[in-house]
Structures are given as C-alpha cells and as structure tokens.
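INFO  loader      accepted 1 record
INFO  loader      residues=125
INFO  predictor   begin
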Amino acid sequence: MTKHKNGESLAEGMAILIVVLIVVYIWLMIKLYELVIRQLVQQPKCWTLWTAVVFHGLMSLAWLFGWDTQHANILNGLYTLSTISLWVTAKAVELYYAPLAEENITYDSIKQAMFHEPWWSLKAS
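INFO  predictor   done
INFO  writer      dumping tokens
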C-alpha cells in the first residue's frame, strides 16, 4: 500500500465534489421542468407561463448554437436568466392558482359531508 500525496487526495475530493454537483444540477433541472409541465397541464391558457417558456426556448436555442462564439459568456448569462425566470414564473402561477380559500376542515364539516342524510332515512335498494 502506498500513501497518497496531498495533490492526489485533493484531486479525488474535487472529482467527487464535481460529480455531486452535476447530480444535484440534473435533479434540479428535472424538478424545474416537472414543475413547468405540471403547470402547463393544469393552466394551459396562462399566457405568462407560455411567454416564459418561449423565452427559455429561444435562449436555449441561442445558447446551443452560439456556445463557441465570442459571446458565449453573454449567452450563458441569458440562458441562466431565462431558466431562473421560467422557474419563478411557474412557481408564481402555481401559487396564484392554488386554492387558497379552502374551507376549514372541522369535525362538523366532515360529519356533514359523510352523513348529509341520516342513515336511517336511506332506503334499501
């Protein structure tokens, strides 16, 4: 068994950190697109969300076709901005259309929902 040098253990640690960061990034992107798809299915006529989706799509295409140009840093920033704006818009749509004014659930409301007619007045079929 040989001892590792500090440089080798540092490189191994950095490699593990990079792998963990890539996995977290992939998980976050999956959750982002899952949120967007869920909101598009629930609210198909929300123009705000569609605008954010189109903006993100255009920035994705610009980033994809222009990543090797001299404006790559600007495209990276615009792609990041469009991703963040898409996430914020989808979350805002989710919160806006959430049923905020639900009725309070009490024992009496449950009893009323279950037994809106007395059981003895039900006729046998």
